[in-house]
Specification:
The structure holds two protein chains of two kinds. Chain A is of the alpha/beta class. Helix content of chain A is 18%, strand content 21%. Chain A has a six-stranded mixed sheet with strand order 1-3-2-6-8-7, with helices on both faces. Chain A has a two-stranded antiparallel ribbon with strand order 4-5. A two-stranded antiparallel ribbon of chain A has the order 9-10. The longest helix of chain A is centred in the N-terminal third of the chain and has 16 residues, at 38-53. Chain B has one domain (16-146). Chain B has one helix spanning 129-135; strands at residues 16-24, 27-36, 56-62, 67-73, 80-84, 90-94, 99-107, 112-119, 140-146. The chains are: A alpha/beta, B mainly beta.
Chain lengths: 285, 153
Amino acid sequence: MSANDGRVIRTEKIIDNGPDSERWNLVIIGDGYRETELTRYHTDAENFVSTLRETPPFDELFSGINVHRIDVVSDDSGADNPNVTPAVTVDTFFDAKFWDGGWSRVLTINIPLALSVIAELVPAMLQVVCIVNTSTYGGSGAPNEHVATCSTHPASALVAIHEMGHSAFKLADEYPFGGFPPPTAEPPQPNVTLNLDRGTMKWRDLILDETPIPTMRNQDCGPPTDVNPATLAPDGPVGAYEGALQSKCNVYRPVSSCKMFANSSPFCPVCSGVIRATLAPYQPS
Amino acid sequence: MAKHTHDKSVKPSRKTLRLTFQVAGGEVKLIKHRRVNMITPPAVGERPETGKHGGFWMELRDENDRGLFHRTLLYPAGDTVEVHSPDGAIRREYAPTQESTFEVLVPDYGDAASIVLVGKKSEGAHTQPSMAAGSAPKTRELARFEIPEGGEE
């Protein structure tokens, strides 16, 4: 289960908006595709690119993005999966595998191997997405290594896009789930805060005067607001909604539900602004 | 958003230093570097301040220790994992590991002398970051590395 279990075939620039030195370079790799399945891999890569291109604000920024597809063939098809009976063990180039137990939807690859391959083929890489040839839902991210992994399940591309929010745009998680204690100092990420001063909040310029701050507090965290969390619209006004960074209380996110809160939501205005600002230098003049 | 968006008056660097760090046994080591002809992704958001902000970040410093650039890090110890669900829900869990790596992209400025890791010292190399955040009072310099030479593509 390693580089001995396949080979790199070729690299193709499937979206070419200019020199790599001037553009934001996304690299797509595949794992668990046999040579006879490369056509399917090409389709899977195109499907991912379409999903990303249709995800605001990427839809308005794509002229600054190059996409490189690296064709890698594996000896076997699919990924290791200990969660089925009998367990599946396959020989693939990047060693794609599902984790076991409660983490059965975590799908990972050998990231150092992937980065070493990509460093030679696309040195100007800024983000990697690995598509694993399995229809079982799963994915993962390596936020400081610019790598996201997803399967071919229709909802898995959204995992990779959420993970890109971390790795390429340094966005924090906006969900409260995980039970971690809240941070004791202001987080450095642009989309979460402890600060409820509307004059100094990070996203103060996006908050309307009539929007209360805090906009929503969670039950048992403090004095309740008039807003019932169950009735919040995902596209409600930008404000300060309690719960983020895996903590329920005392840390705030900009909207009720952004893609950094739930994969099915759109990026909120704050996160969209960060993505636009990050990709601005790569846009054609 | 006055300070939230990228300062467009700062011309982006067209030369980037790709630095790879390893976290193991309570130590952070710079294990690889490469100079790449590409635009460096800008640092978006407020520049974090040591002792005031939490979390982790890297700061590029000149020979007078003035900050030139910063890059925010997320869970640099690599000891958490996100678990996604088909309905869109996400949760993050602690996933202990003995060793991890992380990569940082910074401008390849000629006047950069060092790069500094700022954060909160964990009790161990891979103490759950958010748990450590609850007990450690302030961020501080955790490690400093000289800007390496060579590594041109």
